[in-house]
Design brief:
The protein is of the alpha+beta class. 37% of the residues lie in helices and 18% in strands. The protein has a single domain, classed as 3-Layer(aba) Sandwich (SMI1/KNR4-like), CATH 3.40.1580.10. The protein has a seven-stranded antiparallel beta sheet. The model has no long low-confidence stretch (mean pLDDT 92).
Length: 179
């Protein structure tokens, strides 16, 4: 598992100074905290996600605002133009509620009908759809509008790296649009 975390770390290291990452690693969760959250949510987290949790706790990765200006109310543009960052939900005593996997899961179950056994872990900033884990540790894509969770042929690390790559590519599109 350490090799996959190294791969993710190497990919993050390739990002330039236009990116900023907020992580919950000041106090990463203990194994006991992870087990408590798994028990609360009724799932067992995949090994890659558990390794991420013990390394970073949670993460918010975004392009700095001076590089990618934030959309204003009623802005119109392609969907990608609003995706200036993404959130990886996690566990930690000092992470904000919007990054706390237990809080977000319970809210989505209560407010949006997220099925038991489905746990969100990643989404674009400002969007309501999530990549999730199911009880069998599969990655699935949950549509808030449809209430469905479609199994994906991927894993946690590959999904995160794909989001990093999309964010990097879209940053380039934003920079080409500037006068």
């Amino acid at each position: 598992m350490a090799d996959e975390i190294i791969v993710l770390n190497e990919r993050l290291d390739l990002l330039d100074e236009d990116f900023q990452a907020f992580v919950g690693s000041h106090n990463p969760p203990s194994e006991a905290m992870i087990v408590d959250v798994e028990r609360l949510l009724g799932v067992h987290f995949p090994a890659q996600y558990r390794a991420f949790l013990t390394e970073w706790g949670a993460m918010e990765l975004e392009v700095k605002e001076d590089v990618w200006p934030r959309p204003k109310p009623f802005d119109v543009g392609p969907a990608w133009s609003f995706d200036y960052g993404f959130l990886i939900l996690g566990i930690g005593s000092d992470i904000p509620e919007h990054l706390d996997v237990a809080s977000v899961t319970e809210e989505l179950r209560r407010e949006m009908g997220l099925a038991p056994g489905i746990v969100p872990f990643l989404r674009w900033v400002g969007e309501g759809d999530y990549y999730c884990f199911d009880r069998n540790e599969n990655v699935c894509y949950w549509s808030a509008e449809e209430g469905t969770c479609e199994i994906q042929q991927t894993n946690f690390i590959k999904t995160v790296i794909r989001y990093i790559d999309e964010l990097s590519a879209n940053k380039g599109k934003v920079q080409k649009q500037e006068p």
